[in-house]
Every structure is written in C-alpha cells, then in structure tokens.
Design brief:
Elements: E1 15-16, E2 21-22, H1 25-28, H2 42-49, E3 57-59, E4 78-85, E5 88-94, E6 103-105, H3 132-137, E7 139-147, H4 148-153, E8 166-167, H5 169-179, E9 188-192, H6 195-202, E10 214-215, H7 219-228, E11 232-235, H8 252-259, E12 264-266, H9 271-280, E13 284-289, E14 299-301, E15 304-307
Parallel strand pairs: 7-9, 8-10, 9-11, 11-12
Antiparallel strand pairs: 1-2, 3-15, 4-5, 6-12, 6-14, 7-13, 13-15
Length: about 300
Amino acid sequence: MQSRPTLPSYDDLPVIPELGLPHSWDHFGRDDPFGTLNLLTDDRVREAAGLVREGRVISLSLPADQPSPPLFGREPFRHEGFWIDRNTWDERLDGYYPQSSTQWDGFRHFRAREHGFYGGRTGDAPQGIGIEHWARRGIVGRGVLLDVEGHLRARGESIPHDERRIIPATLLAEVAEAQGTDIRTGDILLVRTGWPAAYAASGVALPSHPELPGLEAGEPTARLLWDWHVAACVTDLPAVEPVPGDRATGSLHRRILALLGIPVGELFDLEELAGWRSESGRSEFLFTAAPFHLPEGAGSPGNALAIV
C-alpha cells in the first residue's frame, strides 16, 4: 500500500462547516478503511526493520484482565477451562470486551455526530471500516516513544492517575526536543504517562465516573499529530484524552479518529519500553501489531510488540 506523494498541512485540510473542524476524508478517499495507516508504505516498513539491533522483543500489552477493576462500568470477563475429551483441554471467555485492556480504537468506534464515522459514513452500522481491514495488513513501522512521565519526573513532577490532568501539545513537542527525537512521516507515536502502573500500585478502584488524565482534546493536539504526519497515536492512557470531557473543547476522538483518520491506541504497556529507552538512549524501534480479525469490529486488543 502506498500513500499519496504529499500531505496537506492541518490548516489546508477541508473543513466541515457545521463543526468548524478539518477532515482528511477526501485526501485518502471516502471508501478508504486505513486513514493514516496508508503512510506505512513498503519503503517505510523496510526502513523500520533496519532499526532492530539487539533482537530484543518487548511486549506492549497489559494482561487481558488489567486494569483491574475494569473501567467505564465494564464487568470483568469470565475465563472458563474445561475438558472436551480425556486428552484435550479447551477454554472460553464470557463477557469479554475487546477494548477493556490494551486496545486499538477502530473507525467504527467513534463518529463526528450526524456527519458520520471516518469517511463520512452515516448510519448506525457503517460498512467498510471494520477492524478486519487493519488486521489483514497489520500495523508495522517505525515506533517512536515520547516518555512524558520520565521527562516530568526529571523536574520533580508527575501525572496523577486519578485527576483530570491535561497534557498539552506543547509538552509533547517539548519531550520530543528534549529526547532529541525526530518525528517522521509514517511514525507510530507512543506516549508514556505511567498511568497503568500508577493505577495498579494504588490498589484503589476508581469511581464509576472517574477523573483521568489525557492529551489535550483541542485543536493544538490534532494539528500537532497531523502535521507530524504520524500513522497512529498510541498511549498508555485509558481514553487518550482527559475524562470527563469538556464540551467547550470538544472531543479528541472526533478530531483525530473520526475526522483525520489517525488510529488511536489506549492502555498500552510502555513501562519496559521506557526502561529500555533510558538504558539505551534510543527512542526508535520496529513496531508491530496484529489487530484482532473481527469482521466489522469497532476495536481490537493491541497485540503489539517493540523489537529493538
């Protein structure tokens, strides 16, 4: 798969007048199911494979039962094992939410109000943008880690796991500069805040309507991610953006997932990767993910690895 030769800047994208928000639907095509994953060209994947030096493989997925207790009113899944004959053990999951732990938000997950899901698809069950399209091609490219938590701790700050802390776009740019990290077209951007580890260490369940930190939901974040031309934005946060949302600011999911076509990853486990970055001084690696091949799925477990 090859992308178009050039990408417009954020300010040059067409705007939906009723929303006052730009979209990329016409750039990639209204029938396109990939969005900025189109930027993961054969050449970029081949170059990313050259980043492997040690051969070390780092899993980026939390255990399927984490975070625990589950968030946003979800119930824990039930895992049952059983014999199907004297020599064969089988198992099943009941009440499993594919987006309850490390996850991809697919294009069927969020829409731009009445203007539709990615590509302008309207209706309650939009066709052609299910997670199976990402599963068939995989998500492979140059991964880049921005260790926001590490950067803040170096100056005596941290991100609380149970407060609505806003992470501005300016801080992401600051971390990239401090790390000496160059963000390139087609990169898979990983943003670490330390949230899963902090939540697990607290031992305290969040309320049913929690307050959570997240990337600034407004235009500055959307502009930065688009003008960086990332292929995907991955975080260790529960919702990428702050919870609860702010009507005056709007939704980052709407801005980048539904309108710009930038895939979103949530609750990735970036702790071991951050340790490797600290030891090696490197921020780039080969990133691979194999989304769940679920026809017309709205999302998928993360199933991601960093190979360094």
